[in-house]
Design a protein that fits this description.
By secondary structure, the chain is an alpha+beta fold. The chain is about 25% helix and about 30% strand. α3 packs across α7 and α5 runs antiparallel to α6. The longest helix has 19 residues.
Length: about 300
């Protein structure tokens, strides 16, 4: 099907099925379209992403939507550029720094684009402390949940969002100079079984492929992303299948140690961040949380953030 190009004054049509430009009067000549790049404002740093594959462009456009610059806004001439092109049946992602990322499949290309954009966002926030943690917010208080993979951070963030509360993320939270916790607004990624248990069909989530180990979930509405919030609670999580919810108070020292061991190298070092983290551990309540069902655990966290 051939449809007119909206807003284009020249006598040119687009073949929507092939993504090629057709010039009137010369129907046998086709020129590849230069699709407009996506543009993001990542903490004050402008980044453009040029995707040559129209089908992949739609998928990449779903990433970091809250950071997207409106298409009608003026373009930034000094924006850093990311190029995504097809090569040998796969994709190559070339960013402003580092080696190209080679991807075999569309899903790998989406994951690669998210990784590149996350890296650029954290680089723009390098003056913050980056903590490997989930973050939950209620009543202008944040619960910070530092921990390694497998401790249930993503499941808690997802269950919290499903309860109608805003989140700061499930994997990285940034701390500003005053110690407030800020969001890294990207998809939550969790075990598909956790989604299914909450009544969300994994096949209805973005980028789902049968056999995937992770499902991607984007918080929306009132349960979307929280603004920077003071930390009022430190939660040291332990996931144990079929375990009852158990909350136990822990010392400030344990809270501080958990924060220090969760600092990521992409931001301030633990030594540089020590004063900031010490003040959070001093002023916030610290608890250990053991749970088997995240939906039950977040009810206990609601009480702690009441």
């Amino acid at each position: 099907m051939v449809a007119p190009v909206a807003g284009v004054r020249s006598k040119t049509n687009v073949d929507c099925s092939s993504g090629l430009r057709v010039v009137e009067g010369r129907p046998n000549r086709r020129i590849a379209i230069e699709t407009p790049p996506l543009e993001y404002d990542l903490a004050g740093s402008r980044v453009t992403v040029a995707v040559r594959d129209p089908a992949l462009l739609a998928d990449v456009g779903r990433l970091f939507r809250s950071y997207a610059v409106h298409p009608a806004a003026p373009r930034a001439p000094d924006a850093r550029r990311v190029d995504v092109r097809t090569q040998g049946g796969g994709y190559v992602i070339e960013g402003p720094a580092g080696a190209p990322v080679v991807c075999r499949t569309r899903l790998e290309a989406i994951e690669g684009c998210e990784w590149v954009l996350t890296t650029l966002l954290l680089a723009a926030l390098a003056h913050h402390v980056h903590v490997h943690a989930a973050g939950l917010v209620r009543h202008d208080r944040a619960a910070l949940i530092p921990g390694e993979a497998g401790t249930g951070k993503s499941s808690l963030a997802f269950a919290w969002s499903r309860r109608g509360h805003p989140v700061l993320g499930d994997d990285v939270v940034v701390l500003d100079a005053s110690g407030r916790a800020g969001a890294v607004r990207r998809f939550l990624k969790l075990d598909p079984r956790a989604l299914a248990a909450a009544g969300v069909a994994p096949e209805d989530t973005p980028f789902w492929a049968p056999g995937s180990a992770e499902a991607w979930y984007e918080p929306e509405g009132a349960a979307a992303w929280a603004d920077p919030t003071p930390v009022g609670l430190l939660v040291l999580p332990t996931f144990a299948r079929d375990a009852e919810v158990h909350v136990r108070p822990r010392s400030r020292r344990e809270g501080l140690n958990a924060l220090l061991t969760s600092v990521l190298r992409s931001g301030r070092s633990p030594a540089e961040a020590f004063d900031r983290l010490f003040e959070i551990a001093r002023s916030a309540e610290t608890v250990a949380l053991t749970f088997g069902a995240a939906a039950d655990a977040v009810r206990a966290l609601e009480d702690l953030l009441a």
